[in-house]
Amino acid sequence: MFRTRVTGSTLRSFSTSAARQHKVVVLGANGGIGQPLSLLLKLNKNVTDLGLYDLRGAPGVAADVSHIPTNSTVAGYSPDNNGIAEALKGAKLVLIPAGVPRKPGMTRDDLFNTNASIVRDLAKAVGEHAPDAFVGVIANPVNSTVPIVAEVLKSKGKYDPKKLFGVTTLDVIRAERFVSQLEHTNPTKEYFPVVGGHSGVTIVPLVSQSDHPDIAGEARDKLVHRIQFGGDEVVKAKDGAGSATLSMAQAAARFADSLLRGVNGEKDVVEPTFVDSPLFKGEGIDFFSTKVTLGPNGVEEIHPIGKVNEYEEKLIEAAKADLKKNIEKGVNFVKQNP
Ligand code: NAD
Ligand code: LMR
After folding, report:
1. Mind telling me which NCBIfam families this protein's record contains (predicted)?
2. Which CATH architecture has domain 1-338?
3. Cα 171 to ligand 1 centroid, rounded to whole Å
4. 219 CA to centre of ligand 2 in angstroms
5. Is the predicted ipTM greater than 0.95, yes or no?
6. pLDDT per residue over 11-36, tens digit each?
7. What does pTM read for this prediction?
């Protein structure tokens, strides 16, 4: 009996059209987030090429995940020989977890001095070598690093507001998980929108729009506080060894998967994400996270916050005050340090 040997490349020609060739690049691929994120992206059937870049170690991460028998190529790059240009060439989506993480006692804003210039320089490289790519910013403080990327791309005439995203998915997966622990439900079935930004009080969980709108009083306050400060829980438990990496990798992989499904033309793909948003521009807040429908061009529709109660209105007001400052700080940084 004859057996036909089906190779990886033959499989690809059957299962993916040219329009669905998606190169995803991770900048900071050797880090605590970068490594598990690279693994999860290698397992995603919508990712056909994986480019892994870091100041050090990315070729090793690439060699390692490249042995996994899924239908994608993997290559690792270092700064030698302008590796970042090669890494970014042909990218559909660039994810940026490059930057330092928090230690106990620090706020995300305390990372600004180090991470602002890292993100600025990587954004310059994206503007030069992958000007059409979608960009997902993970490096903290997200409320400021996203405006930094926007300003850099604007300065190069390459800014497309539909293509830039702050990855706030971790707040959503925490909300889903924490409410399920409280209510003894299946976390995979939970729906729990979180809006605003990604730090402390700028994270606004909308209990009233979740599957459990009746959670009230102290239980609600504790749940909201746990979602807003979930990052601190991990920073404290890691005791100086960094912040969330594994849950963040899962969150970024979910975001990347949603984005690529939207790009592929799948309908009704919705994720909350921090984008250039019209919602509070009148108040000087150019970026805000609400539910966003993702499509072939990236942002297809920015949803309004929707109906909220008085308690949530107060949370939103507090978030807006901090967000405005965080965004201005990012914008001013690029103006003063182009
Ligand atoms: P890490 O220190 O483990 O990894 C960071 C990696 O970035 C390192 O491998 C480092 O070599 C690399 N890097 C630094 N500068 C670089 C540059 N110029 N070019 C390429 N690579 C560079 O840190 P981590 O735990 O992976 O966290 C990374 C960032 O993500 C931190 O800023 C952290 O606060 C943030 N974070 C964000 C979220 C979120 O929800 N958005 C969640 C968790 C962590
Ligand atoms: C998180 O929410 O876990 C991240 O933003 C990392 C941090 O500093 O808490």
Report:
1. MDH_euk_gproteo (TIGR01772)
2. Alpha-Beta Complex (3.90)
3. 17
4. 23
5. yes
6. 343 344 555 889 999 999 999 999 99
7. 0.95
